[in-house]
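Re: zinc ion structure - here you go.
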Amino acid sequence: MCDPCMVAKKSMARQCHLCQRSSLKAKSRSHSNIGTNRRQKVNLQKRWIDGSQMLLCTNCLKTLKGKRPELFVAAPKKKAAPAKKK
Ligand SMILES: [Zn+2]
């Protein structure tokens, strides 16, 4: 399910790393029915999956949590700040 080449790719577009879902073009309509272009963004969440950080849509997160809960690992701890010398 976690294709390593897809993780390495990490394209600039904000899209899901698993299903490649990205934003859609839409229009907001005023009362006079004038359309203004806008974007409908995908609900993307950063998660640490199998040791690497991934952007996943909430649909994929839900599926993964049900099928492969062992892939979810805690984020690696940051280096502790060096102790101050007196
Ligand atoms: Zn997805």
